[in-house]
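Q&A log
Question type: sequence-to-structure
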Amino acid sequence: MDIYLIVSLLILGAVTGLFAGLFGIGGGGVMVPVLTFLFLRQQFPADHVVHLALATSMATIVPTALASLRAHHQHNAVVWPVVLRITPGVLVGTFAGTFLAAYLSVQFLAVFFSIFMAFVAWQMIRNLQVSPARQLPGNLPLVAVGIAIGAISALVAIGGGTLTVPFLVWCNLALPVAIGTSAAVGLPIAASGALGYWINGLGVADLPDYTLGYIYWPAVLVMACASFITAPLGARLAHRLPIPTLKKGFALLLVALSVQMLLAVFSAQ
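Response status: OK
Response body:
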């Protein structure tokens, strides 16, 4: 890798780790569009560049989520019974979603990613209030929610926080607790997603050197080193800073990155 790519990946990993701890997200919303741009600049095969970005993002989320959930656990902000109840659905949905993503075109994935992130940003900006009587659903509905979260997370390579946090807040968990619990849910999502993209990329021709399936491991290692350091910092900030203002800023960032990804993918065709 050239020095430009290494420095870019270090910065990306640091920013991703900060957002992972701060918002309880895996960071795919940040990583995927930037990795797509960086991989195109490295002249990786255009037909697989988004698959590579998705897979590499998922693999990077594993250590990032681990650092983030550890920091939130130290603040007693992880509801472990909820994590255990939703994890089976998350594992099934994420693993199945990677098989679907492997057969979708780069253009479709880019458009789906951008539309989904725009929807998430809109939800963040709206900041809707929920009924105080609403509670978490039972085991089977929670498994179904986990399947949906996992499947969408696999298609857009997120740790699930952009879905899990709003869902838990909608169920009347306090925002810092929803963020911490989401960080824990992000670990099985990332692990299952990375495994699925690894399997689906095996045997694909013309992929760059040092890939395992669709996962480009040099990028994973560089970004993970940075994110593992900054994720605990983000978790500490999540318990101190005004989250509504930060959520709106992050929403604007999601929109900008989505637009950038669309421009990068379609200009490369």
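Response note: The radius of gyration is 17 Å.
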